[in-house]
Amino acid sequence: MRIAIVTDSTAYLNKKEYEQDNIYFVPLSVIFQNEVFKEEVDITSDTFFEKVRKVDQLPTSSQPTVGEMTKLYHELEENYDAIISIHLSSRISGTFQNAYSVANSMSNINIYPYDSEMAAAGQAFLVRAAAKLAKKGLSVNEIIEKLDEIKKETEIYFIVDDLTNLIKGGRLSRAAGGVATALKIKPVLTFRGGEIVVWDKIRTKKKALKKIETLLEESIREKDYPIEATVVHAFCEEEAQAFKEKLAHRFPEVRFTFSFLGPVVGVHIGEGAVGMAWTMDINRL
């Protein structure tokens, strides 16, 4: 069976991964007043953050339309027998719901929408795994079963400099974020049940990064499988690279990669965020 893997732009894969692993994506958009930019198509991450610095009104974001998803799925039905469509958490975006609606309306190909319950690097783990498993000839059910296992084992933590955008955008409750904002501390955020929640509140970014490092160390000690980890950043590459290099030196048994947080996620978390996600490394199982 020929299985296509679809995701959305918030997985923030690179061009090589899309091309080599036959992964397809639909872009989400950012809106500066009346200007609409599709991320990873019309605007890059760096350009986005540079543009935000120059405007008074913060941009907003929007999900792919039903029409955009329908168009991509119709194109894929010419060469594939099924589609697994993996998207950012349905608790923070309607992208998954749109994929679900389109899947129910099409009859020429079976479409399996999958809620990652995460975004960015956590979502990317699932997309890359699905593509590799599809290449190996696993069935749709076998792939989805493995995705469930990987999702269960995935941890994602990130630090933002300012919670204002997350609270205003409804991605973080005022109750959860209000205290941290008032005390000017650096909260460590994570995903739980598909929602962004405050995991811990720490006084400085340096200490917050150290806390994430400790969490990774605990996972390495407790898990009986090899781990892969991805360090991500929002327009603070030098700081994030230094964090990654430190971790790679301390934990040589972990396979580290590096990624970024693009415009749509950047709308909500702002410039300067650093984070890390890790999970089982299926390439070494």
UniProtKB/TrEMBL annotation:
| Keywords, in A-Z order | Lipid-binding
Q: Name one GO molecular function term.
A: lipid binding
Alphabetized Pfam families for the sequence:
DegV
Decide whether keyword Endoplasmic reticulum is in the record. no
Question: NCBIfam families annotated for this entry?
Answer: DegV
**Known role:** May bind long-chain fatty acids, such as palmitate, and may play a role in lipid transport or fatty acid metabolism.
* The protein, known as: DegV family protein
Native organism is: Alkalibacterium kapii
